[in-house]
Amino acid sequence: MSSKKKTKAKTKAKTNNTPQGQTDVKKQEEAGKEVTKPAETKPEVTNKEEAGKEVTKPAETKPEATNKEEVGKDVTKPAEEKTESANKKEESVDKQKKPEKKQEVVEWKEREQEKDVVQEDGATEKKKAHQFGMFLLVLMGIILAATVFVLAVCLYDTSKDLKTVQTMSGSLQSEIELAKQKVEQVEKLLEEVEADYEAVAKNASDEAVAESGDVKAKPTATPRPTPEPEVYTVCVDAGHGGYDTGATLWTDEETERREKDDNLRMAELLKKELEAYGVKVIMTREDDTFLELYDRTFIANSLDADALISLHRNAYYLNGKMNDRVSGVEIWVHNSRPADAMQLAGEMLGAMMEVGGMKNRGVKYGSMSDVNENYAINRRALMTSMIVELGFISNEEDNAALDTYGEAYAKAMATEIYEWLQTLR
Predict the structure, then answer these.
(1) For 44-78, what is each residue's pLDDT tens digit?
(2) Taking a C-beta distance cutoff of 8 angstroms, is the pair 339, 356 a contact?
(3) 0.85 exceeded by the pTM?
(4) How many Å apart are CA 410 and CA 419, to the nearest integer?
(5) Helices marked H in 281-395
(6) Domains delineated in the chain
(7) 100 near 51, Cβ under 8 Å?
(8) E strand or H helix at 166
């Protein structure tokens, strides 16, 4: 049975069961007429599945008649009119309900869309949170790597500093040992000076007693030579030494000529010639030892030398290489040009020129770079001082002259120094 027929049957049953319906039927039966049942009205659709569908108009119900001839057409018309009015009412009801159903569907769709949007927003937020977390992890990794790198650099620098400190401590220790040796040398020289002074004083006392005829005086067991009335002290400095070779000339692949060696050899020759005149000579170094510049002047100043003669050799360079274009002897003094230093330097140069072999480059003052700046020897010495440049090691003629006339140069310088010393007393 179709749904429409079921709906009609239910409607018919309801209508007959009402009190109004039963009364009308009775009245019609009394009148001897067959009454046509009113048309069924379709119940409202409450099922959501049928919402939104167009309600089907109920089919017209044909009235049942017990006597077809008596009922006729007059009885059928009122039923048809009632059915039409019911249909109109149902249509109006359907028109009112359709917008409501459509509105519910729209609201439901909107709610679903809102849910989808919320879910999408939640997923987006989770994705952003995940990306931010990954960014933080990467950033922390970079910071950690940078920290490790900085620590490694600091450790490397610290290790270098430790090595530098160790090297400095080693060099400092060697300098301390060298200073001790220098102090010992100075003490030894002082002892020698004191011994000489005591010997001179004793001899002078003995001579005075002998001349006075005092028999109580003790005669000397061994007569000593009468010393010079004046005692002179000259400090001879051999420039450079040790690891400081000074100017170096390579003659071939296996041999070399070093300034420090020439300086020491000429210092020893000058000492020999001065001692022959009875002059006391103090050597700043007697072997291949390195000395600071202040050590050299300290030795001369502490022993109250009358003069400080520092021996060196010159060198000329052109385009970074030694060149033999320049030659000759020159002497440097303080830029104040003290009269004693200027006089002695001029006389020494003149005596060396008489020996021959080298050119005279004259007496100069200050320094090669600036006349207002003095070399340390002349700046710190408390006595007459000068730097004698014994020719150019870069010039073969000067080297040959020094090798040939070295002793003659030393004797010429010693003679002029001794004569100059006699003018001081």
Answers:
(1) 444 444 444 444 444 444 444 444 444 444 444 55
(2) no
(3) no
(4) 14
(5) 293-302, 339-355, 376-380
(6) 3-117 (no CATH), 231-422 (3.40.630.40)
(7) no
(8) helix 68-212
